[in-house]
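haha ok so turns out i had the wrong file open the whole time. this is the CORRECT one, sorry everyone. sequence first:
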Amino acid sequence: MKVAPVKEQNKECSNELAARASLRFSRSCSRLSGLIGFSFVCLFSIGVILPPNLAFASDKLSQAKILIQTGNFSGAETILRKLDDGKNAEVLLILGNLFNGTSNYKIDYKKSFSLYRQSAGLGNAEAAYNIGVLFFNGRGVPQNYQKAFEWYSLASQSGYPPAQNNLGFLHQKGMGVPQSNSNAYGWYSIAAANGSKAGLRNRDILLAQLLEDEGAEVVSEIQTKALQCVQNNYTNCFGE
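then structure:
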């Protein structure tokens, strides 16, 4: 049996039905919004309900962040690409984060590295720290602990606690710098003071070893040097 072709008049009828359905949706959505105190925003023209946090986001960057939180990385990338003028450090940082493997979305460490370089060049400490992580792990760039140390140091100068903790780790393990438990303890102490939980944990573990191996007087000297480091805005620390 042959199926008769759809006539244009039937399409017009379908359009009319769709319009009526959209009107009913609009009215229903309005009533729903009134009942629950504007928890939803209705886009009547396309029949879509946006999540309230996204619908009321004050700007495009905030919308992109919310989309990332909800797992819509593609939508976030679209917004961020439109915002990227090469001059916004935060936009470049977030774009870099999309490709660095943490979300399994379009993993491209080289692209991530390039975006972080641009962001760090605009003064973003987190981007500088992330470059250090890439060098440490050899992702998108050849593994290089000395380069990791340099980028962690740059991020640390802005008071970025994760970078300060990682400086302590490099000193403790002798990776990219001469091995020094004293310097490691100093950086762990600074990171802990700035709110790093990892720094606090590492400091306390190393403290017990230092007290046993070097004594309380040496520990006191390191703490004095750590205070001087903070006063010097995290530059020229521990003889580095």
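Residues 8-36 form the longest helix (29 residues).
again sry for the mixup
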